[in-house]
Q: What sequence folds into this?
């Protein structure tokens, strides 16, 4: 279904403000885009009379507005309301819409912070680290929800640490893991903290890194003995990772390029360097997107 | 319904309205009982009266009496962008046109005899140019007449509508028009042909103003007219001839020419062909459906359709941006599209007389690369003549999600 998609509806002169996302929308296509990409921020309260009036009066789609009002009166689920708009515009394929439908049904049971975390986790899984961090920060520095346990916030700190680590900012990552440990008391978090500190040490960024590796053991009186065992396991894991790094595709590609240089294959060397730079540039753009 | 056709000339104009009872246009008479159909294209600003205006013959009479300031050759005046100053009166050209058109419409309404709102107005012009059309548009706007109620046409178009509104036997074969006025002879041949279920109407104009100028020497005129007719009719099947213009009035007496054009042909003479043609056109464009299967490809009409490949509601379709057979003025259009995995716009040009379509690709490489379905573009087509249009493609970004780059692609397309 690729090509030029005709916009049949009006482009409004006055926008509709989507409060939860802090964004103005001007067309039904933008509403569809928001629903598809930011479904984590959409709750039943999104479908309100102001939205219906905007669709009817400003975008000039009275038929769609009438359908949404009817569904709302019949207390239709979030999934049905969202899919009504997506199918009306026919902006996305049936497969894309079907996938979204299952996700919506799952999200329907969650509150706004859980949905925001799911959105951030989605960014993290797709290595869009900057976007993930921004969303995690919204949760951490936003209004605390007393219905959510400390473990939830700990996991948010942890994932933010993973995002920073993905961008090689191990100092920020280690701080996030430290905050996470205090809240979720999770072994994975403790190990992640250890790894981050080891990378700092390896980079010789912080002379205090050696002291920091002992901090874990001192952090929580109740887990001192367990964390020593944990540190030992983590240390072995790190050694194994470092040893097997040479078999990693990325490592082998760089090694291959350096080998070309060593062997005097100048053309292949420069071509390889160019490809690597382009790949890293694309990756950087995605990660910081 | 109140439907009006106006032949707006620089020196004289004519008006007709559609008579539904007889299903024919009726000409407005300006000077009974002389039955004068033409009215001078002049207005007069009355002295010492702030809003006092007159038009037509009355304006001329008042001017002789020194009761005001006369403005004539209004279409020439409309071509000027600066205010017109006469004596100590300063006025904008658009206001002069507004006054005159108001007078014409009031005259038509008076003859029509009913106080009905105008449903459709067609104004036909000998000199069809964009500057004049814009001034007329502005004047009609000042008169409160909505754009959708107004159609502009060239004299050739008005002639075509007149000819096609006669019995079919008169236009099945070629028709010919001789328009002989103060500027000389102008000819036009109209031919129709059936193609894929549509009747295509084409014209071929000949400007013979240099070869046959306006003159009073009947003998010389007869030679020139006869020669022109023989040349134009050579190897053609002309079944109907129309004569119009001042030159064929009064003392016109070219017997050999008349005999030649009437030989095995039907011939008609009259001075209100364009006004009535405009009225027929206004009728067809409002309620008539006599020409729904016609494609009129004469002067000032676009003869090449422009189509575009699109995706609508998930289905690949062809969107017709411009239909062939429409007048180029106001044939422009604008559509918004969302770009989905596409780096060029594909336009198809389809001439009315050919099955072959020409593909024109407009690359979008100047626009930033974005994720699919996150770019809105506006495609606009504007015509400056029946063969030339200007394409503009504007990157609109995607609301607040993606900022517009501000980039615009411009392309001229020759049809």
A:
């Amino acid at each position: 279904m690729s090509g030029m998609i005709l916009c049949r509806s009006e482009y409004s002169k006055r926008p509709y403000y989507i409060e939860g996302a802090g964004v103005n929308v001007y067309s039904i296509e933008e509403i569809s885009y928001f629903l598809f990409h930011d479904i984590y921020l959409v709750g039943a309260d999104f479908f309100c009379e102001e939205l219906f009036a905007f669709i009817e009066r400003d975008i000039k789609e009275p038929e769609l507005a009438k359908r949404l009002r009817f569904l709302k009166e019949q207390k239709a689920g979030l999934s049905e309301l969202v899919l009504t708009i997506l199918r009306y515009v026919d902006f996305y394929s049936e497969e894309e819409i079907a996938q979204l439908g299952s996700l919506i049904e799952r999200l329907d049971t969650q509150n706004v912070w859980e949905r925001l975390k799911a959105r951030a986790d989605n960014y993290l899984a797709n290595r869009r680290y900057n976007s993930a961090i921004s969303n995690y920060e919204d949760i951490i520095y936003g209004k605390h929800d007393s219905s959510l346990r400390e473990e939830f916030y700990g996991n948010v700190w942890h994932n933010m640490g993973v995002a920073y680590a993905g961008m090689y900012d191990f100092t920020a990552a280690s701080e996030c893991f430290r905050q996470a440990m205090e809240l979720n008391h999770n072994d994975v978090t403790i190990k992640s903290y250890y790894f981050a500190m080891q990378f700092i040490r390896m980079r010789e960024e912080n002379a205090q890194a050696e002291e920091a590796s002992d901090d874990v053991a001192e952090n929580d009186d109740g887990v001192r003995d367990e964390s020593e065992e944990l540190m030992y396991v983590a240390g072995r894991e790190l050694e194994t990772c470092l040893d097997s790094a040479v078999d990693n595709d990325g490592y082998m590609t760089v090694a291959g390029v350096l080998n070309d240089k060593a062997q005097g294959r100048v053309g292949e060397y420069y071509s390889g360097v160019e490809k690597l730079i382009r790949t890293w540039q694309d990756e950087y753009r995605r990660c910081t997107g | 319904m109140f439907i009006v056709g106006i032949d707006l000339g620089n020196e004289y104009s004519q008006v007709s309205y559609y008579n539904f009872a007889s299903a024919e246009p009726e000409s407005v008479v300006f000077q009974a009982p002389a039955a004068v159909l033409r009215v001078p294209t002049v207005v007069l600003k009355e002295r010492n009266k702030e809003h006092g205006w007159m038009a037509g013959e009355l304006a001329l009479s008042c001017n002789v009496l020194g009761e005001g300031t006369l403005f004539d050759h209004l279409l020439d005046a409309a071509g000027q962008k600066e205010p017109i100053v006469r004596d100590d009166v300063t006025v904008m050209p658009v206001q002069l046109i507004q006054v005159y058109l108001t007078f014409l419409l009031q005259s038509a309404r008076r003859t029509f005899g009913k106080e009905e709102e105008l449903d459709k107005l067609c104004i036909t012009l000998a000199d069809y140019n964009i500057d004049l059309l814009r001034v007329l548009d502005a004047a009609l706007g000042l008169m409160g007449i909505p754009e959708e109620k107004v159609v502009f046409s060239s004299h050739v178009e008005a002639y075509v509508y007149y000819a096609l509104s006669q019995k079919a036997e008169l236009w099945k074969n070629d028709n010919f028009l001789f328009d002989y006025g103060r500027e000389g002879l102008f000819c036009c041949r109209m031919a129709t042909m059936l193609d894929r279920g549509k009747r295509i109407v084409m014209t071929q104009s000949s400007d013979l103003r240099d070869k046959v100028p306006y003159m009073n020497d009947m003998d010389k005129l007869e030679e020139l007219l006869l020669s022109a007719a023989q040349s134009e009719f050579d190897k053609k099947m002309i079944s109907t001839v129309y004569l119009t213009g001042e030159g064929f009035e009064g003392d016109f007496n070219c017997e050999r020419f008349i005999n030649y054009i009437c030989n095995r042909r039907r011939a008609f003479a009259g001075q209100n062909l364009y006004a009535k043609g405009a009225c027929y056109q206004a009728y067809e464009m409002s309620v008539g459906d006599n020409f729904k299967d016609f494609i009129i490809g004469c002067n000032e009409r676009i003869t090449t359709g422009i189509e575009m490949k699109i995706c609508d509601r998930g289905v690949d379709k062809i969107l017709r941006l411009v239909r062939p057979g429409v007048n180029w003025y106001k044939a422009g259009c604008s559509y918004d599209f969302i770009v989905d995995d596409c780096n060029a716009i594909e336009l198809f040009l389809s001439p009315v007389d050919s099955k072959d379509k020409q593909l024109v690709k407009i690359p979008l490489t100047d626009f930033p690369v974005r994720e699919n379905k996150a770019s809105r573009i506006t495609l606009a087509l504007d015509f400056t003549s029946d063969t030339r249009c200007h394409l503009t493609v504007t990157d609109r970004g995607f609301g607040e999600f993606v900022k517009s780059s501000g980039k615009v692609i411009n392309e001229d397309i020759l049809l």
